[in-house]
């Protein structure tokens, strides 16, 4: 929501020009990897051996994800305002929505439409509100950096380190 609210409609062209090539290339490569991996890797992933834990989902997630928090903090410190604004586009590409779209279009998985709506709706509502009221955009855009540690904590809190020992070196 906050990321969507921080985007100016007039700046979308600059943001697309700055990071569009990177995002489109990452999505295309992830789609090709998904199509190839789905034919080579078993449906439930590799369960034994050195590559235990390797699955098509793991490969696609690794190919299309970007550390948005790291990108945002580096671009705000060293980059231009437009490069920092590209964080939003890269965040869209790095979320579960793009992974679901890649897996769905590659014919590997199917998802109900409400799952896509749940992934995109907060961003679209934030985008609309941020463009309707500049004060809301300013207010919510400050929250983007504030929320990064909470995302990191939520992700890190769910990591079970014993899984590493159970899945092998690659897992």
From TrEMBL:
Pfam families: KdgT (PF03812). The keyword Transmembrane applies. The chain crosses the membrane at residues 21-42, 48-72, 84-109, 115-132, 144-165. GO terms for molecular function: 2-keto-3-deoxygluconate:proton symporter activity. The keyword Oxidoreductase does not apply. It comes from the Bacteria. Keywords: Cell membrane, Membrane, Sugar transport, Symport, Transmembrane, Transmembrane helix, Transport. GO terms for cellular component: membrane. Belongs to the KdgT transporter family. This is 2-keto-3-deoxygluconate permease. It comes from Escherichia coli DORA_A_5_14_21.
């Amino acid at each position: 929501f906050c990321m969507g609210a921080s985007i100016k409609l007039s700046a979308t062209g600059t943001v697309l020009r700055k990071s569009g090539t990177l995002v489109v290339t990452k999505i295309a490569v992830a789609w090709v990897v998904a199509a190839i991996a789905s034919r080579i890797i078993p449906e439930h992933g590799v369960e034994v051996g050195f590559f235990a834990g390797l699955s098509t989902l793991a490969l696609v997630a690794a190919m299309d994800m970007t550390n948005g928090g790291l990108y945002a903090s580096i671009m705000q410190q060293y980059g231009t305002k437009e490069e920092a604004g590209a964080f939003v586009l890269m965040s869209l590409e790095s979320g579960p929505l793009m992974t679901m779209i890649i897996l769905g279009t590659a014919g590997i998985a199917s998802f109900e439409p409400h799952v896509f709506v749940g992934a995109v709706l907060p961003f679209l509502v934030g985008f609309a509100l941020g463009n309707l009221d500049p004060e809301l955009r300013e207010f919510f855009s400050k929250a983007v950096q504030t929320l990064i540690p909470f995302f990191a904590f939520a992700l890190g809190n769910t990591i079970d380190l014993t899984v590493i020992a159970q899945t092998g070196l690659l897992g």
